[in-house]
What does this fold into?
Amino acid sequence: MFLADCQTRLAFDLLANTWNAVVMWALRHGPRRPGRLRTEIGGISSKVLTETLRRLEYNGLVTRHTYAEAPPRVEYELTDLGRSLLGPIEAFGEWAADHADEVMAAQDRWLMTDPPLKAGEPGWTRLP
It folds into this structure.
């Protein structure tokens, strides 16, 4: 059973947000400024990147370094705790690469047999 305060559920919640794992993966080679992260990730808005970095910092997975320069410079970097999640993120990414075609085929079969859901309805997802 996964209770609301269950430690396993905490881990699932950390990886449930798409951008958490993506940003952490982008930080795996060292500190990055937000602009560089946006370039390396692609498809993430400044607002969503800021929210994600704050969420990761709140959970102790990244640290924020502010430099007293003109103009001010900010970098983000994984903590040891954040680095400890890179293995599971990589494994999940490998699973996705190995099974994405199967998942998409299952989605297509479902759409052919069941009434399709509209985009945004619970249960609707589609890999790009």
Observations:
- The longest strand covers residues 62-67.
- Residues 86-113 form the longest helix (28 residues).
- The CA atoms of residues 30 and 77 lie 6 Å apart.
- The beta strands are 62-67, 73-78.
